[in-house]
Amino acid sequence: MKKVVVFGAGLVVRAHVRYLLEHGFAVTVASRTVSKAEDIIDGHPNGNPMAYDVTKEPERLAAIIADHDLAVSLLPWQYHAQVARACLDEGKHMVTTSYVKDDMMALDAEAKEKGIILFNELGVDPGIDHMTAMKVIHRVQAEGGEITTFQSYCGGLPAPEANDNPYGYKFSWSPRGVLLAGLNNARYKRYGEVVDVPGKELFDHVWKVDAELEGVPTELEGYPNRDSMPYTKVYGIDPRDVMFRGTLRNPGWCSSMKQVARLGWLGTDAMDGLEGKTYADLTARLAGTGDTSDLKNKVAAHLGIEAAGPEIANMEWLGLLGSDPLPGPDAPVDVLTARMLEKMSYNEGERDMLVLQHTFMAEFSDRREHITSTMIDFGIPGGDSSMNRTVGLPAAVGVRFILEGRFTQPGVCVPVMPEFYEPALEELERLGIQFTEEVKVADS
């Protein structure tokens, strides 16, 4: 029996582990909170919960990996290269759902030399988005066409009936990661021009995006997701008009988070003197005012916005202007994370959803095609969230294909090759994760 070790026991691990157990693998879930690992394994005879904290016991990492055939890193992204390094030293394959960073890419040559697979970006975004995009791109290229526009949006959101807070969002994956993504620089091409976006201006680049949720037309908003331009090389395309990968949210998220970020609530440095203080005290400090009196107007004046506007109202709803005590003397983003988790988590029985939509313009010698590829997936009330399934299952399918010898390409890779994505998409469709494609044809 092949053995897999999964590092992490967060919000996207359960479906991943259950799939591997159901397909005959022995699975160790290594987590600093062993009770979470026990809950995920749920008494399965081939499951093994393990207490492990990579930050406190890095010397154990290699030995744990050596005792397994493959390691899955579902830890925060900054630990993936550490896990990959240990996999290379022990001659084991690795899978993760996160973006390829420079320190991971630096291991590519050694991985190829040793015949080791370091499979990255194998979740939903990135992951399923790559696979479904390449399915269309390869079809267009095989028919002699050229992609002139590529636009892709993805977002994890509350289902319409669960969308009951003014931010239009609830947390189905790493809350801190969601918030810090609001500081990312971005780059994309639009109308033939490459646009560079500093992180502080991220929420100024927002567009309306139309979707249809359970048959009802819905207007969402989208903004840039990191640097889109390297994917011209990854995807093998060079669109002359648009190259854009973006994040989807409900209307109002971007304007609200822009002001939260401007105020300093996404700061990652710990601040002194917060013991015994309130949210209002910290907001006043971030706004540069000496006290909390008339705080709403002071914050509005500091940001240059209307005190009666929705952005200040949303801060009030969240409690950032209130007298509740702070949860701890942490960095502002950690305080904000704790508060948002308290106010913006899913209740029992509520559904989340994933919306992923690609749009292409393709030119052929005799026609032009406008192609739309859409996935709308809902969580299961009382069961797995859509985020859990759409992130965890692609990675689990990747693990299975590697250990069954169905995928053998060594090195640092992402899921853009047809020998992987074609059977993987078939398996995901069997699991209920489906795309619909619409093609509209016009004369060239």
Keywords:
444 residues, alpha/beta, Rossmann fold, Dihydrodipicolinate Reductase, domain 2, Domain 3, Saccharopine reductase, 3 domains, 7-stranded parallel sheet, 16 strands, globular
Write structural notes for this entry.
34% of the residues lie in helices and 25% in strands. Strands 3-2-1-4-5-6-15 form a seven-stranded parallel β-sheet, sandwiched between helices. A seven-stranded mixed β-sheet has the order 10-11-12-7-13-14-16, with helices on one face. The protein has a two-stranded antiparallel ribbon with strand order 8-9. It is an alpha/beta fold and 444 residues long. The protein is built from 16 helices and 16 strands. The chain folds into three domains: 3-119, 3-Layer(aba) Sandwich (Rossmann fold); 128-251 and 349-385 and 434-443, Dihydrodipicolinate Reductase, domain 2 (2-Layer Sandwich); 256-343, Domain 3, Saccharopine reductase, CATH 1.10.1870.10.
How many structural domains in the coordinates? 3
Oligomeric status: single chain
How can the largest sheet be summarized?
7 strands, parallel
Helix percentage range:
25-40%
What class, by secondary structure content?
Answer: alpha/beta
Q: What's the topology here?
A:
Layout: E1 3-7, H1 14-22, E2 26-31, H2 34-41, E3 47-51, H3 61-66, E4 70-73, H4 80-90, E5 93-96, H5 102-105, H6 108-114, E6 117-119, H7 128-142, E7 146-158, H8 175-180, E8 186-190, E9 193-197, E10 207-213, E11 216-224, H9 231-235, E12 242-249, H10 253-263, H11 279-286, H12 295-303, H13 310-318, H14 332-343, E13 352-363, E14 367-378, H15 386-403, E15 411-413, H16 418-430, E16 436-443
Parallel strand pairs: 1-2, 1-4, 2-3, 4-5, 5-6, 6-15, 7-12
Antiparallel strand pairs: 7-13, 8-9, 10-11, 11-12, 13-14, 14-16
Helix pairs in contact: 1-15, 7-16, 10-13, 15-16
